[in-house]
Amino acid sequence: xxxxxxxxxxxxxxxxxxxxxxxxxxxxxxxxxxxxxxxxxxxxxxxxxxxxxxxxxxxxxxxxxxxxxxxxxxxxxxxxxxxxxxxxxxxxxxxxxxxxxxxxxxxxxxxxxxxxxxxxxxxxxxxxxxxxxxxxxxxxxxxxxxxxxxxxxxxxxxxxxxxxxxxxxxxxxxxxxxxxxxxxxxxxxxxxxxxxxxxxxxxxxxxxxxxxxxxxxxxxxxxxxxxxxxxxxxxxxxxxxxxxxxxxxxxxxxxxxxxxxxxxxxxxxxxxxxxxxxxxxxxxxxxxxxxxxxxxxxxxxxxxxxxxxxxxxxxxxxxxxxxxxxxxxxxxxxxxxxxxxxxxxxxxxxxxxxxxxxxxxxxxxxxxxxxxxxxxxxxxxxxxxxxxxxxxxxxxxxxxxxxxxxxxxxxxxxxxxxxxxxxxxxxxxxxxxxxxxxxxxxxxxxxxxxxxxxxxxxxxxxxxxxxxxxxxxxxxxxxxxxxxxxxxxxxxxxxxxxxxxxx
Length: 503
What we know:
Elements: H1 2-19, E1 33-41, E2 50-56, E3 63-69, E4 75-81, E5 86-90, E6 97-101, E7 106-112, H2 119-122, H3 126-134, E8 140-142, H4 146-160, H5 167-172, H6 177-202, H7 206-225, H8 227-234, H9 243-254, H10 262-281, H11 287-291, H12 298-314, H13 321-330, H14 334-351, E9 361-363, H15 372-381, E10 387-393, H16 398-404, H17 407-413, E11 419-425, H18 430-439, E12 447-450, H19 454-464, E13 471-475, E14 481-483, H20 492-500
Parallel strand pairs: 1-7, 9-12, 10-11, 11-12
Antiparallel strand pairs: 1-4, 2-3, 2-5, 5-6, 7-8, 10-13, 13-14
């Protein structure tokens, strides 16, 4: 125990010493947008086809997805919020191109979809991977930053054509944090040399190289921060001396590039989580004071506070007056502050409007039963003659909420059929529960919601929950239990088939 506390104290001391040497960085968030327009050749149109863009969201710390319809002749146009320069994932299901974006710009993209056919099979082998990413395509960018986007696209293909072990594989095969650190640094240096050689050969714009370097640095920093979860498996209290200093030196080099990417957010999110672990072991509840040892950059402290507030809002819990005051004392960036407060006000307004619930049954109690079978029979007995698609979820559950965006299209495919959608909420406060239902429009005359007392919900879950939340259950028209491993709404073809076979 003394050894563990000594290691912990050393880690915090080392963080404090290194933090004093940090620069302030130049990343700034401001209200702005980015537009992407273009056209696909050899495009086969289907109603509902969309051009998609995914970007790292500085307000939530996760990716945010946007979509716009593609016309019958292959044209698309989309404008998205874009507060800081960063990575863009362009139409990942069709062309799988990663690029960068600059606030305020308009990107014009043209691609031949025939040139992107066969990617999945090509990537099955190392040789196929090399050939796929070395192929030439007619994909082109136009606009003020056309050269930037073209250079990023071409280098990313070179990088993705490499067949080295990924950071995840290195982590899983390593039982020592310092051995893993050295492997990560070696891989990072190899990729930076690849970029340097490519830059000399192709004369990259300075900002192209700046963004690409930042991406490589942050990917390595994220790989190092992810080892914090491995520590838990190894039952270690803290990183070995020197580990965090390496991570810190990498992020310090990258930060002045003012570039937002998934690696940066993963690294910062992991360090916040690690700070929470250290605070717990040091028997202090002040996570902020421990996290401050990781950074002297005010924006990173503000981002962390914004993410904490956003987590509460994502769970449909409006911020209390004291929470708002604490948030405003920590977050001064106008963009971050406005985004959270606007979201909070919208959630309060939603919680006060119950008009959407008028045609939807909400049930908070049922008779006492001693077994899960009896409870399930009571819930499903009223729907004899209909197939029941049941969802065990919670307002606090991010994967559950992620599935809700697929529900409208899934329900539409079953419209007019003898199907009932039953939702069982786990440990969800009533206001948050109702707000989630309204937000995601989980409503209709064939929808029933249950928010049972914890003891009753627990009885059901002990019997029917499958590997956590969400769990999807199907009951046939005779009221017989079929499976608790039903396809998710994000797998509509499979889910519709299973249900249709029972109708």
